[in-house]
Amino acid sequence: MDKTLCVIGLGYIGLPTSVIFAEHGWNVTGVDINKTVVDTLNDGRVHIKENGLDEMAARVVTAGRLHARLKPVAADVFIIAVPTPHTDDLSADLSYVESAVRSLVPVLAKGNTIIIESTIPPRTTRDIAKPILHAAGFNIGEDLYLAHCPERVLPGRILTELVENNRIIGGIDDRSTNMAADVYRTFVKGKVLETDAESAEMSKLMENTYRDVNIALANEMTKIATELNIDALEVIRLANEHPRVNLHQPGPGVGGHCLAIDPYFIIEKSPEQAKLIRKAREVNESMPMFVASQVQKVVRPGGKIAVFGLAYKGNIDDLRESPALKVVKELADFGFDIQIYDPWIRQEQTMLPLMDRAETLDGAEALLILTDHALFKQLDMKEVAEKMHQPLVIDTKNCVETRSEHVQYVNFGNLHELNACCPAKQ
Ligand code: SAJ
Predict the structure, then answer these.
(1) How far does residue 211's CA lie from ligand 1's centre (Å)?
(2) Whole-model pTM?
(3) Which atom of ligand 1 is closest in space to residue 207's alpha carbon?
(4) Is the per-residue pLDDT at 309 higher than 80?
(5) Does ligand 1 have an atom closer than 6 angstroms to the CB of 155?
(6) How would residue 420 be classed by pLDDT, with cut points 50, 70 and 90?
(7) Is the CB of 249 under 6 A from ligand 1?
(8) Atom of ligand 1 nearest to the CA of 313
(9) Strands of the sheet with 4-8, listed across from one edge
(10) Mean pLDDT over residues 351-361, rounded?
């Protein structure tokens, strides 16, 4: 194949996307403003941890099918995969998307297809990207084709999901949709679903909002169940035996760059209507404080707390919007002495001091598990109990599989037991 692709943004999505297109025969240029990222990739290495990415990147760079650059180059197809952070008032900061679109203008030629993969509020493709290209003298749908194709891959499984997941392709017009769909059809094994730009934008946001609202429901139910001495996890297990019910799992909050942010992109566009979506965000945002207040029931003021897990979810090295960071902050504000262990996080990723497992447990009055890393499933509870001052395990992710008489084990199903259990407070 002699097709060329230029990907703007070599982050969690843009880098694997560049690599997978190159692996499927495209000639790819990856563009990033960060020189270290560019140099690292041109060396055949990657700056993020993702299953299988390092080997595949090394292969396509060595084969000469993937190059990294600081500026866009001419290509048949452009994919924009830059971040859309939110501003202090929680609306989408589109400055990266806008400047990425602008940066293409000098290299664009008639017949090019431009695809925005970054998550964006509804109508952004038509109301913001299209006018920039139009002002540069291009007629969209005739000279250039423009579409939104949201990324929907799960960290840890990105290379597999890029190929196997269904893709939604929403063009500014039918021709744009068809052109963009053909790009993905070169390697996607899932369905390539063609629609308009607005439906594509909104459906991506609703997928993550659906999960956020469902998790909020589970979290709210956990608070209610704790008050009423009911086992929330048992309730979820039983209710989910119904063929049309899928309650999600409660936890210390909702992290990551998607579920915790995407709902706000809907709220900002329709603040009067988005009542349930806003409430769900509030419930999930309240969970770190809820967890900290449960711990406060059972640990003496100033006491040591061992925290296992900082990443926003299990088996990844990602701290973005992690509820664990917020729980740690609340606990620190309460004046507790916090010791943290996370085998997936490197010290340079955080200002919080990380320790090894044994040091973290040493003298602790509670072990608080905030991330469901597989490594935490089989904890040696005898060792845990020996190191701790008070052998109490609070598992907010219900992930520990080992049970033992050496420790008191509490999860979101029996949090109410904390009201009665605390020798440290007596
Ligand atoms: N969580 C719960 N309870 C649950 C499920 C998740 O508390 O029952 C928490 C997790 O611990 C984590 C957060 O929610 O803190 C988000 O985790 P996640 O695994 O649900 O989602 P992400 O953010 O890693 O990835 C999501 C995915 N979207 C959906 O599953 C609908 C992924 O497919 C998207 O590509 C990604 O968002 C994205 O980029 O939008």
Answers:
(1) 7
(2) 0.92
(3) 31
(4) yes
(5) yes
(6) confident
(7) yes
(8) 11
(9) 66-69, 27-31, 4-8, 77-80, 113-116, 145-148, 167-171, 192-196
(10) 97
